[in-house]
Design goal:
This protein is of the alpha+beta class and 155 residues long. 59% of the residues lie in helices and 15% in strands. It is elongated and about 85 Å long.
Length: 155
């Protein structure tokens, strides 16, 4: 069976004319026209209402994790300064403190960036647009030999 597939599967070329003929034999003409809700097609800054809250939440979470990791790093450093520990424990505490400070730095960066982004989005948010000022119609037609898509409206 494997040899038959290798030898015969692509023995006949299937070009564009075959595909058009195959499609024409199995497709009926369809014409669809529908109304489109244009507020969903607004540019990204027109949807700032969603993103401003998402970035504000990210900022709060990032800054909270950063503060938590900084406090934990400080506790590790305090235990290191205690002096009643072995050299192995001191090395482990130093590594733990350093890694927590690194994580805190990354989280402060993420939180600060998200806070700045949220601030910009709060400034760009202009509220909801007037829905009666926008209207659109989208259309699609399929034919045996092709198709068409159209979008028209007032903005």
């Amino acid at each position: 069976m494997e040899q038959s597939f290798r030898r015969d599967l692509f023995a006949f070329p299937f070009g564009r004319s075959f595909a058009v003929g195959h499609t024409a034999a199995h497709v009926e003409q369809v014409d669809v026209t529908t109304e489109v809700d244009l507020p969903s097609l607004r540019p990204w800054y027109g949807r700032a209402g969603t993103w401003k809250w998402a970035t504000a939440g990210t900022a709060v979470a990032g800054l909270a994790v950063g503060v938590t990791m900084q406090v934990l790093a400080g506790r590790s450093a305090d235990r290191l300064a205690d002096g009643n520990i072995t050299m192995v424990q001191a090395v482990e505490l130093q590594q733990e403190s350093n890694s927590r400070r690194a994580i805190a730095g990354v989280m402060f960066g993420i939180g600060g960036t998200a806070a700045l982004t949220s601030l910009v989005l709060f400034l760009l948010d202009r509220g909801e647009p007037n829905p009666s000022a926008r209207a659109a119609t989208a259309g699609m037609a399929l034919f045996p030999d092709g198709g068409a898509v159209s979008l028209s409206g007032t903005f």
